[in-house]
């Protein structure tokens, strides 16, 4: 009888030990699964096209932001102040969005950022010192180049193997707002500025050069 009781006790304890081991294993596996679920996947590196687009557009919107900042510094308290401020606020939003995309896609900003920062402000303030119409001529010239640039990018994205829909929507929206800025400049007498044709051509050339440089470095 003692032998039978001993065997029964051993069997019971064996089952208990088995259950404990199974429970610990199950708990460990479940915890590992939860840890894996909490891990956020890294954002994939941007494609060569997306990398180039984000870098150059970030530089462009930085430049536009500083141009309007320069115009506001000179004309902010005048009749054109509200109009310039409205366009400037939109450019700030554009710049902020591309700063987010720079971080999200881990894109290297152009090394020319400090130069574009200063050059944009000087261009905006310099043309504003020539008068309201000259400032609007600057706006028309810059926005003409930006709208064309964005249209080229939209075609590139749509023709790519895997179009980035988010980037496509962002650029489309910004392109439309830049076109509004262009039209505002025309409505505010840009074409009446002294040496309008020569001034706008020089500004356009400068913008196109800045775009070409910012694409690569």
List the helices and strands and how they pair.
Blueprint: H1 2-38, H2 48-75, H3 81-104, H4 113-129, H5 132-159, H6 165-187, H7 196-216
Pathway: Cofactor biosynthesis; ubiquinone biosynthesis
Region (Disordered): 26-45
GO molecular function: 3-demethoxyubiquinol 3-hydroxylase activity; metal ion binding
The separation of the N and C termini measures 90 Å
Helix content: over 70%
- Helix tally equals 7
CATH topology grouping:
Ferritin
Computed Rg: 30 Å
Secondary-structure element order, as H and E?
Answer: HHHHHHH
Summing up helix and strand content along with how strands pair, one would put the structural category as mainly alpha
CATH class: Mainly Alpha
Shape: globular
Identify low-pLDDT runs: 1-15, 20-42
Number of domains: 1
What fraction of the residues are assigned to beta strands by DSSP? Answer: under 5%
Mean pLDDT reading: 86
Architecture in CATH? Up-down Bundle
Please tell me about this protein's structure:
- Pfam families: COQ7.
- It comes from Drosophila busckii (Fruit fly).
- GO terms for molecular function: 3-demethoxyubiquinol 3-hydroxylase activity; metal ion binding.
- The longest helix has 37 residues, at 2-38.
- The chain has helices spanning 2-38, 48-75, 81-104, 113-129, 132-159, 165-187, 196-216.
- It has a single domain (48-216), classed as Ferritin, CATH 1.20.1260.
- Residues 1-15 and 20-42 have low confidence and may be disordered.
- The chain has 7 helices and no strands.
- It is globular.
- It has 217 residues and is an all-alpha fold.
- The relative contact order is 0.13.
- Helix 2 (48-75) packs antiparallel against helix 5 and helix 4 packs antiparallel against helix 5.
- The chain is 82% helix and 0% strand.
